Amino acid sequence: MKLQAKERVWAAYVIPVGIMLVFLVFNAGFISMKSFPRDDSAAVFIYFQHTYQEFQQTGTFPYWNPYFQYGYDDEVLNIIYNSPLSAFSMLLGKWMGLSDSWFSFNFFVYSEIFVLILGMYLLMSLFVRSKHALFVGIGALALTNIIITNIWTHSRPVYLIPLGLYFMFLGFKEKRLYYIAISFGFAATSIVGNPPYWIPIYLLIYSFLFIYLFLTYFPGIKARPALNFPNLFAFGMLGIYCGDLLYFLVQSRLGQTFLAPARDPETLKVPLEVFLSWGGNGLKTTLQPFVGFGIGGIPWTDFYLTTVGLVFLLYAFFAVRSRLALLIKLLFLLFFFLPWGEYSLVAIGAYYLPTMALFRHLVALFCVTKVFAAILIGLGVEQFLRDDPALRLQRGRLAIAVSFTATFVLAMQLYPHFSARMPNNSMEWFLTSTLVINLVLLVTIRWRLRLFLQICILLVILQSAMSFWEYTYAVEYPLDFRVKEATVVDPLTFEEKRIPNDRLQSIQGNRWLELAKVNPVVSSFLYGAEASKPISNIDFCLPYRMDRINNIGEPVHRLMQLLAPELHLSAAEPQFYQERKPNEVFLKTVGCGLPKLQLYSDFEELPQAPTADPNLLRQLLDRGVYLEAPKTGQSPIYLKPRTYPETRTLKGQGIEMVDFSNNHLELKVETPPGAAAWLIYLDSYDADWNLEVDGQPAGIWKANIAFKALKLPAGTHQVRFTFGGFIKELTYWGINLFGVVLIGLGLFIGYWRIHRGASLYPTDALKG
What we know:
The chain crosses the membrane at residues 12-31, 102-124, 133-151, 157-172, 177-193, 199-220, 232-250, 303-320, 332-353, 359-385, 397-415, 427-444, 451-469, 730-752. The structure is a single chain. The protein has a domain at 597-726. It is 53% helix and 10% strand. The strands form four sheets. The protein has a seven-stranded antiparallel β-sheet with strand order 5-11-15-14-7-8-6, covered by helices on one side. α21 runs antiparallel to α22.
């Protein structure tokens, strides 16, 4: 069917279609490329913005993240925690050898923010014009809460949810199949980027919204009037969250473990008093899903529709006064306050429930809280639709209440940072809270949508300028590996303050404790997303399990296969092997607590048998280095250090970093006079890396099966690791330029249509 002129919406077509094209190319790139740098480089894909911020702040490499250690065995899995635009930019930058893709990546991040704002603008237009869109919008609350519930599954394709829901509603309202098809594309994009155990819940919520709209807008369905009441959505949400809770309980009974916020499954072993001490964060953890502050990741993706839920939740408390509503309010408040404090009766009872990892992490209590919150949200929507629009006083009171609530939560977030040291994303939190308040005012007082869109764009520009200033001129430390605080402690002394000894033993066993006595590590501990980084240039190396030991790169997989026979594991404990033992041996093997770059200048080179040699494992555990030559036919070497490299700074080893990006490393290395030295780079070995020493090509040795190494003669040398070449870089910029032109065209046409007074959505007949 040919579209009429008034139904052409270029801003709503060019940008979504462009995103889908980029997403298809993005997936095609993953499928076609069988090899590109992983391991430490995987952290750039997974926490790319965080690692770039860390580098810009301290000049250090992205440190090891215990939860995403050493990549995956299948590159396609890297799509998790990424998004079609910025991840596409980062992937091509890595593959094509771009020396620094930070500015390109940043552009796409803010493009995503604009797409998010555009989708929110369109969806909020429907909020004002159609009561049915309110159901769709609060359905988005459920979708975003799924992601926020578990910080380790934070997925940024969520920013496509508003556009997807907008086209879904529009397709059913206008009975146009291509709109519905577009909405399915956006829905699939937002689902694919999530871990498998969230996908069924996504499908359930999308299915509920699909059925609701189908029954509402297609003729011949007798049940239409009953479906117009928000209680249908409330009970739908109740079923969703109860199903969510049931799913986790069943899976925990079957032995599957889940990472709850700031906790890992090993916390089952902590004493009761330690477990109860976690209740202090009950208020913050409970409020975050409703006010929209993400515990980790990029908070821009968390604020937009979660706050709408908070609006109607408070509206229900203020305006709904039935007996049923009173009972639900009391239950909500009971479960809202129940997890707090060290004397929570529910926490004490949950601690003694057998094999209930979910309850032990108090996630179940938060799920129950959201069940009652969802019912109250539905009641709030119902009352909101019943009230006379002329009742401005109620809306004004609600706006004030929500504004104070958002400000209060913002103060809770910023207080610990101002009392210590403000982190990079405090400005983002501040601007996000401003957007939250503006969104609340939009919903409650019905501001002009164009003004709200302009405010959002101005805030994005302001944040871009602040980020540029912070990264460029306000760097606390110069471009070098510097120590923030020269504090190196014995791990037992440090860990006793944070984790009891019995948990230490349960995770790593006595062998770790024996190693800890002679191998001090830095006092860095990843405590949820609030990482203490006294020495930022030294890897995390604590008795803490790596999340998924089976998702590892091929070099590390070979290393694990080598280490496994020594463990003497029985067939009855495969899960124990997967979750604990290899981590223990692996952390020892790579040099626990050492910098990414290690210069060995005092050593003995010994001939080494192939990897089948049973003595190899013992040599590796003694912190030796097994070196394989870049050319076939050369015998491997066993490097037996007489003394070990300096562990505090790179300069103490004679290493100075000149330049660094995700696929480019340039060093100035000064070896001791009169002696050669081995430089070990604890980043994954890959055949596509190139090496130049003093401008001349050189071969890269393989260290300990998984890492890079090279031998340097005495003197001062310029060392340069690169990945890719000029043609790939040129292709990268060509593709990025195409994307920039595409997005710019959509923005220009959209602005032009707004300037002419045209609508950004196909029809004005959405009075619903």
